[in-house]
Structures are given as C-alpha cells and as structure tokens.
Amino acid sequence: MAGTSNKRSGARNHKRGRFNERGADSKKMDHVGEASSCDGMSTRVGAGTTKKRNTKECYKGGARTNEVVRCKKGYVSRSCKENDIRGSCQENDAHDDSYSECTKKTKKYTESKSMQKSKTNELIDQCKKDWEISRRKKVAKSEREDANKRIVKILKGHFYQVLRKRTGSKIVQTLFKYGNATLKDQIFDEIYRYIPELCQCSFSIFFLQKLVDSKYLGKVFEMLKKEHRKILTSRVGAFYFDEVYQRMKVVQKGEMIKEIMGSEAKIFYGGKPLEDIPKEKFNFEAILQKMMDKGLTNLEIMHDLIYYHLMHFNDADERRVFMKGLSLFFVDLLHTQRGKSIAFELLRTSENKKKIFKKTGEYISKMVENAFVHDVLLELIQNGDDKYVLRYILKPIKTGMDVFLNTDNFDLFLLKLIDAHKFEVLKNKFMKAYKKNEKVYALRYEKVVGKLGGPDLKDNEGTCAEAS
Question: Does residue 466 form part of some domain?
Fold first, then answer.
C-alpha cells in the first residue's frame, strides 16, 4: 500500500512539475510574444505559436541575455548598452514635443488667419455706410469727400487685405475713381509691393485694371518685369500681364523679353536690340510649356515668345516637332499679328492639315465675324485640300446661311470669296436666303449682289440651280 501511494504521489508531483514548466513557458511566451513595433520582436501568429525572434543576441558578463524592457513604443530587447534604450526613449520624447509644438504653431497660424479674415470683414462692414454715399453719381462733392476720408481712415494700412475681398475691391475702386490725386497716390503707394500677389486674385484684378489707363502704368510694368515668372504661370495673372504688355512700346517689350531670357541676356546684351542677340539664345521652352499647359495660348506675350523661340532651332527635326504641337493651338494664334505670321508658317509647313481645318471648323462663325483673320481663311480655302475646305468651312456656312447673313463682316468675306472664284458652292443658298428678306439685306449686301450680276437675280438664281 505504501509503495502504491508513493507511486501515486510521484506521478502527481511529476504532473505538477510538467504543469509548472508549461505554465512558466506559456507565461514567458505571453510576455515576449506580444506585438511590438521596434527591434524586430516576435509577434503572436496563432494559438500557442510565435514567429522566430529576429533580435540581436547580446551578452552581459559572459551570460546570454535576451530580456524585454517596456518602452513608450512597445517592447524592445534589452541591449548590453542600456543607454541606447534610454536614448531612444529620449528621442521619442523629443519627437513628441516637436510634434506637439508643430501642432500648436499650425493651430496658432490657422487661428490668426481666421482672425485676420474676420478683422478684414469687420473693416469692410464699417465702410459700407460711407461707401453707399461715395459710390452714387449724383451727390455733393463735399459730401463725397467726407465719406472718402472716413473710409480711408478705416482702411489705411489694410488696403492689400481689403482688395482681396469682393466688396472690398469695389470700395477701393470707388475711392480710386472719385478720389483726388493725393488719395490715389496714397492707395497706390500702399499696395505697390503687393501687385504680384494681387494680380493673381480674381477680385483685386478689377482694381489693378484701373491702373492700366493711369500714370502708374510704368511702375506697374517694372514690378511685373521683376516678378514675371510667378505671374506668367498664373492664369489670372498672365492675362493682366498681357494687358499691361500690350500698352508698352517696342523698346519696353524688348526689355521684357530679355528679362524672361535671364541674367545672361541682361548682362551681355542689356543695351542692344533683340535683333543683335544670337538666335540660339532665344530658348523659352520651360516658360512656354508651363503657359501651354494652362491654356494661355492666345496672349500677345505668348506669341512673341513663340516667335523668338522658333529662331533658336538649329535642328530642322526639332523645329518640325515643335511646330506640330502648335497646330493644336492654331485658332489661338490668330489673335495677334505675330501669331498670325506663325499661323501662315504652319499652313505652309504642316504635314497633317486636317487638325488645322478641324479647329477652324469649330470657330468658323467667329472667324467670319473677325475681318482680321479673313486672309487666313482665304489661304485655307485657296490652298487647302478641297475635301477639308468643303467639310469644315464652306458646308457649315452653307447650312447656316440665314445666321451668317446677320453676322458682322460676312459681306466682306463674300466679296473676297467672289474675287478668289470660290463662291460657286454658296451662291445658290445665298440668293435664296437673300430673297426672303431682300429689304433687310439690300443695303448691306449691295456690293455682293452687284458683283453677282446686278438686280437681275432671277437669271442668276436659275444659273446657280443648274450649276448645283
């Protein structure tokens, strides 16, 4: 019996020992098997299984140690150099501090910006009562001057912020319109250094347009010249830049081209005309690409840059590739004289004229209305492929003859077609539409009818019917 009880107690102790060992292992496994974010600690994959630890072995006093220490980021293996752990914790603390500091700065900036906006709106609200007096056409001069003085007293030092608001811009425009010379100088002196930013704002641009027809135009031009890179790549700014550029003389336009060319042109060719600068120096690829990407292809400054850029090509293939890209903007080139010269070159050299005819067909009514581009239309009609001429130019005109008869300059276009012997396709349709409202059209199309055979329209009508 004693032997039996000893065996049973031994078995129990053996089981307890196994249980204790398993419990210790499982506890240890739970301790080191938790997910961690640093030092390659093992992570729990499934019940009772873990990935192999991918930590560096380190030895302390000849004995292998692989202890685990709690850190802010999670569990990390204790290195022999405990200072590393302390250092990493300090770095984390510094990172947290810098992050919180950055957050505070951002919050402070946002709050200050919103406060600034609300302050600007308050200033505008304070001016509205006096603005209603100042903006009226029929008001006593002294009353308007008093109202203007009160507005200036409120807005002094804040014109830049106020101009960026819709109502604020209107208030400053009123001051500039009805104010005396001293008041205008005061406003301009305050906003002068902010012109590059203001000309990119869709509200303040209306005030800046008032400066184009004033004595301040020269100063505005000088400021735009300094900040041309920023302004030309802004859609709103580029249109204002071009408006100022159009008012400049040839010499001033040349100075602007040199400014865009860069420092080399200003230093070595500052006092020389553009014609004396070597052609290979006129490389405007970067600025042209940015302007094309934003659709700024109908501006005079753009056409001047293209004109000079075409000079710098020594390789005929490179020039041909560039010209091929311009065919997409064919109609936009027809806004200026220099752009039109580029368009004529496209007509002579372009391999695929279908794109050009297609673009022309999209804007045929506007091109007929604009006498400035009639010579381009005639060039297309006379020297283009008959298939494209009929499809994209003559057929739309023939289909919408009733509309075109009421279009400005259509009579001039028809006279040019008759002289070029290209009117036969339109003749029959024109006469039918003309006869419907002969009293209305008689005076405008007197010369056209005269060239077609005078007042005897019935015979002409029959001839056209036979021809068609």
Answer: yes
Instruction: List, as one string, the DSSP characters of 45-89.
Output: EETTEEPPP----EEETTEEE--EEEETTEEEEPPS-HHHHHHHH
pLDDT tens-place string over residues 149-183: 999 999 999 999 999 999 999 999 999 999 999 99
Looking at residue 182, its amino acid is T
| In a domain? residue 406 | yes
Number of domains in the chain: 2
As given in the structure block, the two tokens for residue 243 are 């408006």
Which of 236, 268, 287 is where one domain is finished?
Answer: 236
Do 68 and 76 meet the contact criterion of CB atoms below 8 Å apart?
A: yes
User: Is residue 425 within 8 Å of residue 401, measured between CB atoms?
Assistant: no
The model's pTM: 0.69
The domain boundary, picked from 187, 220, 236, lies at: 236
Angle at 181 between CA 180 and CA 186, to 5 degrees: 100
CA angle at 203 for the pair 119 and 200, rounded to the nearest 5°:
105
- At 270, list the tokens: 């500052």
12 assigned to some structural domain: no
Q: In the Cβ-directed half-sphere of 307, how many Cα atoms lie within 13 Å?
A: 20
311 CA to centre of own chain: 27
Helix 235-246, helix 217-226: angle, nearest 10: 130
Q: Which residue has the tokens 């009579």?
A: 411
Structural domain harbouring 125: 120-236
Q: Is the dihedral of CA 453, 458, 461, 465 positive or negative?
A: negative
DSSP 14: H
Is 185 a member of any domain?
yes
Q: What does the pLDDT look like over 6-27, one tens digit per residue?
A: 545 555 554 445 444 444 444 4
